[in-house]
Amino acid sequence: MSVHEHSHERDELTRNQGLVLDTLDDAKGPLSAYSILDRLRGEGFRAPLQVYRALDKLMEFGLVHRLESLNAFVACRQDECGAHGTIAFAICEKCGMVAEFTNDEVAHLLEDWARSEKFELAKTTIELRGLCEACTA
After folding, report:
1. Residue-range definition of the domain harbouring residue 28
2. Residue 73 near residue 52 (C-beta atoms within 8 A)
3. pLDDT at 28
4. Which of 32-41, 77-86, 93-102 has the highest mean pLDDT?
5. Rounded to an integer, what distance in angstroms lies between the CA atom of residue 40 and that of residue 99?
6. Residue (of 91, 104, 89) closest to 131 by Cα position
7. Cα 12 from chain centroid?
8. Could you tell me if 19 and 47 lie in one domain?
9. Residue 60, domain CATH
10. Model confidence over 95-116: pLDDT tens digits?
Protein backbone atom coordinates (compact mmCIF):
# COMPACT_ATOMS: atom_id res chain seq x y z
CA MET A 1 0.00 0.00 0.00
CA SER A 2 1.47 3.35 -1.02
CA VAL A 3 1.68 6.20 1.46
CA HIS A 4 -1.02 8.02 -0.52
CA GLU A 5 -3.74 5.39 -0.35
CA HIS A 6 -4.66 6.40 3.21
CA SER A 7 -6.31 9.71 2.47
CA HIS A 8 -7.59 9.46 -1.06
CA GLU A 9 -8.10 6.55 -3.39
CA ARG A 10 -5.59 6.69 -6.22
CA ASP A 11 -8.21 5.85 -8.86
CA GLU A 12 -10.27 8.88 -7.82
CA LEU A 13 -7.56 11.25 -9.02
CA THR A 14 -7.73 12.78 -12.47
CA ARG A 15 -4.97 11.91 -14.94
CA ASN A 16 -3.27 15.28 -14.36
CA GLN A 17 -3.49 14.95 -10.58
CA GLY A 18 -1.97 11.47 -10.75
CA LEU A 19 0.88 12.65 -12.98
CA VAL A 20 1.67 15.60 -10.70
CA LEU A 21 1.57 13.36 -7.61
CA ASP A 22 3.84 10.78 -9.28
CA THR A 23 6.29 13.53 -10.23
CA LEU A 24 6.46 14.75 -6.63
CA ASP A 25 6.71 11.17 -5.33
CA ASP A 26 9.71 10.54 -7.60
CA ALA A 27 11.44 13.84 -6.80
CA LYS A 28 14.45 13.89 -4.51
CA GLY A 29 13.27 17.17 -2.97
CA PRO A 30 10.69 19.94 -3.30
CA LEU A 31 9.67 21.07 -6.77
CA SER A 32 8.27 24.38 -7.97
CA ALA A 33 5.18 24.34 -10.16
CA TYR A 34 7.37 25.27 -13.14
CA SER A 35 9.74 22.37 -12.45
CA ILE A 36 6.73 20.05 -12.39
CA LEU A 37 5.52 21.57 -15.68
CA ASP A 38 8.95 21.01 -17.28
CA ARG A 39 8.94 17.35 -16.21
CA LEU A 40 5.42 16.79 -17.56
CA ARG A 41 5.65 18.49 -20.96
CA GLY A 42 6.01 15.06 -22.57
CA GLU A 43 2.67 14.10 -20.98
CA GLY A 44 0.83 16.95 -22.67
CA PHE A 45 1.18 19.63 -19.99
CA ARG A 46 1.52 23.02 -21.66
CA ALA A 47 0.42 25.65 -19.14
CA PRO A 48 1.23 26.38 -15.50
CA LEU A 49 -2.52 26.52 -14.81
CA GLN A 50 -2.76 22.75 -15.47
CA VAL A 51 -0.16 22.14 -12.76
CA TYR A 52 -1.67 24.63 -10.30
CA ARG A 53 -5.16 23.12 -10.66
CA ALA A 54 -3.80 19.64 -9.95
CA LEU A 55 -1.72 20.92 -7.02
CA ASP A 56 -4.71 22.73 -5.49
CA LYS A 57 -6.75 19.52 -5.50
CA LEU A 58 -3.86 17.39 -4.24
CA MET A 59 -3.33 19.84 -1.36
CA GLU A 60 -7.06 19.76 -0.62
CA PHE A 61 -6.85 15.93 -0.46
CA GLY A 62 -3.83 16.15 1.88
CA LEU A 63 -1.55 14.38 -0.59
CA VAL A 64 0.74 17.33 -1.27
CA HIS A 65 2.09 20.17 0.88
CA ARG A 66 3.29 23.62 -0.13
CA LEU A 67 6.52 24.83 1.43
CA GLU A 68 5.84 28.53 1.75
CA SER A 69 9.45 29.63 2.22
CA LEU A 70 10.56 27.82 -0.96
CA ASN A 71 7.39 28.38 -3.00
CA ALA A 72 7.65 24.66 -3.79
CA PHE A 73 5.68 21.48 -3.26
CA VAL A 74 6.35 18.04 -1.75
CA ALA A 75 4.36 14.84 -1.66
CA CYS A 76 3.02 13.98 1.78
CA ARG A 77 5.26 11.42 3.48
CA GLN A 78 3.10 10.63 6.53
CA ASP A 79 0.20 8.27 7.01
CA GLU A 80 -2.90 10.00 8.33
CA CYS A 81 -1.35 13.40 7.78
CA GLY A 82 -4.79 14.97 7.44
CA ALA A 83 -5.52 14.03 11.04
CA HIS A 84 -2.93 16.58 12.20
CA GLY A 85 -3.80 20.27 12.16
CA THR A 86 -0.14 21.21 12.51
CA ILE A 87 2.45 20.05 10.02
CA ALA A 88 6.14 20.84 10.35
CA PHE A 89 9.00 20.56 7.88
CA ALA A 90 12.74 20.57 8.48
CA ILE A 91 14.41 21.87 5.32
CA CYS A 92 18.15 21.44 4.76
CA GLU A 93 19.55 24.58 3.17
CA LYS A 94 22.52 22.68 1.72
CA CYS A 95 21.16 19.48 0.14
CA GLY A 96 17.46 20.37 -0.06
CA MET A 97 16.29 17.38 2.02
CA VAL A 98 12.83 17.88 3.52
CA ALA A 99 11.64 15.93 6.56
CA GLU A 100 7.94 16.11 7.44
CA PHE A 101 6.87 15.65 11.05
CA THR A 102 4.25 16.54 13.62
CA ASN A 103 4.65 17.46 17.25
CA ASP A 104 1.56 17.34 19.45
CA GLU A 105 3.13 19.48 22.18
CA VAL A 106 3.83 22.35 19.78
CA ALA A 107 0.41 21.93 18.18
CA HIS A 108 -1.30 22.21 21.57
CA LEU A 109 0.67 25.34 22.48
CA LEU A 110 -0.36 27.02 19.23
CA GLU A 111 -4.00 25.92 19.59
CA ASP A 112 -4.05 27.26 23.18
CA TRP A 113 -2.70 30.61 22.00
CA ALA A 114 -5.26 30.81 19.19
CA ARG A 115 -8.08 30.01 21.63
CA SER A 116 -6.91 32.63 24.15
CA GLU A 117 -6.67 35.27 21.40
CA LYS A 118 -10.03 34.20 19.89
CA PHE A 119 -8.16 33.54 16.66
CA GLU A 120 -9.88 31.02 14.40
CA LEU A 121 -7.05 28.73 13.36
CA ALA A 122 -7.46 27.10 9.93
CA LYS A 123 -4.11 25.34 9.60
CA THR A 124 -0.57 25.61 10.88
CA THR A 125 2.56 24.95 8.88
CA ILE A 126 5.96 25.29 10.54
CA GLU A 127 9.17 25.37 8.53
CA LEU A 128 12.54 24.86 10.17
CA ARG A 129 15.55 25.87 8.07
CA GLY A 130 19.06 24.64 8.72
CA LEU A 131 21.39 21.73 7.99
CA CYS A 132 20.49 18.04 8.12
CA GLU A 133 22.65 15.48 9.94
CA ALA A 134 24.42 14.39 6.75
CA CYS A 135 25.35 17.98 5.83
CA THR A 136 26.68 18.82 9.31
CA ALA A 137 28.85 15.67 9.46
Report:
1. 3-75
2. no
3. 85
4. 32-41
5. 25
6. 91
7. 19
8. yes
9. 1.10.10.10
10. 999 999 888 899 899 999 999 9
